[in-house]
Amino acid sequence: MLKYSNHMAFKDLREYIEFMKKKGKLIEVDDEVSVDLEIAEITRKATYAHLPPLLFKRVKNYENWKIVSNIFYSIESLYEIFGTNKLESISEGFLSNLSNMPITFFDKIKSLREILGLGKVMPKAKSPSFKEEKNLDLTKIPAIKTWPKDAGRYLTFSITITKDPETDVHNLSVYRVQILNEKEAIIHWQAFKRGALTAKKYLEKGISKIPIAVVTGVDPAIAFTAASPVPHGIDKYMFAGILRGEGIDVAELDNQLLVPSHSEVVLTGYVDLNDMRLEGPFGDHMGYYTPADYYPVFKLERVYIREDPIFHVTSVGKPPLEDAWIGKAVERIFLPFAKMLVPELIDMNLPEYGLFTGIGIFSIKKYYPGQAKRVMMALWGTGQLSLLKIIIVVDQDIDVHDINQVIYAIAANVDPKRDVWVIENALTDSLDPSVPFPPLGSKLGIDATRKFKEEMGKEWPEEVRSDEVVAKKADQILNKIIKRYQTS
């Protein structure tokens, strides 16, 4: 049976807020603030300053509402949420147990859930903490405006929940949602996102109205999972349970969707694929306004809230903001999955200034010529990594998190004609402002590994190395010099 983290999972957003308050790491803002630009501006400045979460207690024109932001304020925030500073250990434990199971053993059992101990991390039915509120509509929810030229107010960290019509697998994803009026909003799901792919399955069945729920204010581990590139086919509720070490409490709605039982706000209705409207512009994580484009409209049917609700928002813009730290945690947690798909992979770095899908640096154990390009092709065929615009591959002795070491490897090991690879008409991030015809653009691969004879036509030159005896004596003398210098 699998062993999971001993970290106590948070039941809901409120338990997390109380936890941070007891640690002295919650900033309670008593000044009255507006959802129109002010909350977003304060949040961005707080994230840049590495301040902990903010709880806005007086929101102009929205009495009885509180707003929380900056939950993912640094990589430290993810250590607090998951109870470990070695995030890859969460998925390593799961995968090691999975890979050690013999196939013949699988053939003999009736329930994979039982043999893997997944019962503990599967969602569990629990009565909801929220109640229906007939007097609420979309305009009475404290959605925020992030940048001056945004098309309007947006839900910025709400979770859109859909269910695969063929497998019943639930998907939880963070899409920006533009409020139009009391009953309508636009869901910004890009063509390759799980929500849009689920919608296509409904369309193939002749269904154009997709049942969805949009929830706000959940345990941060659930919010993180929703923002993560969990492989297609894996139920995000189960994956969140693996990260938390225990299953999520869920409640079933009238439209047969499961939502977290302790959500602060739940909006239910359907996305009408026959009603496409211009969404945007919106200032996104690239630091530019995304031009307006057509996306489907969400039609609100019911609103549920908790008493004295707490609304979760984020503010995006140039890095490093909250999405950068989510990206760094994704890098660590999903590294074991990437190693399973690319066995020679040693480590990876998705730099916070690389915009998550902009630049990826990967170190490999190199065994044969042409291996770096093979790794690039494998990575470009893997989930969210397929969106990477630039991939740099280095040898295993290069620390991918030390940019200077990476620059050295590029400068010393790369012949541009031989080692730089440009691929045209490939899938890219639709939000990339440099792409003329999204979602198709070009990609760049840089092979910064040392080359085999077959790759460059001659032997790679020998690296300089110190004489060990001389180096040991030099260290002894130098240590004496340093001590004398420090005490003088």
User: Mean pLDDT, nearest integer?
Assistant: 90
Query: What are the low-pLDDT stretches, counting only 5+ consecutive residues below 50?
Result: 1-6, 101-115
Briefly note the CATH topology name of the largest domain. Pnp Oxidase, Chain A
Percent in helix: 25-40%
CATH architecture of the largest domain: Roll
Radius of gyration: 25 Å
User: Termini distance?
Assistant: 61 Å
Largest beta-sheet characterization: 9 strands, antiparallel
**Overall structural domain count:** 2
Name the structural class.
Answer: alpha+beta
Report the CATH C-level class of the largest domain.
Answer: Mainly Beta
Note down, in words, how this protein is organized.
The chain has 488 residues and is of the alpha+beta class. Residues 1-6 and 101-115 have low confidence and may be disordered. The protein contains 15 helices and 23 strands. A hairpin with a 5-residue loop joins β12 and β13 (258-260). It has 2 domains: 13-312, Pnp Oxidase, Chain A (Roll), CATH 2.30.110.10; 342-456, UbiD C-terminal domain-like (3-Layer(aba) Sandwich), CATH 3.40.1670.10. It is globular, with a radius of gyration of 25 Å.
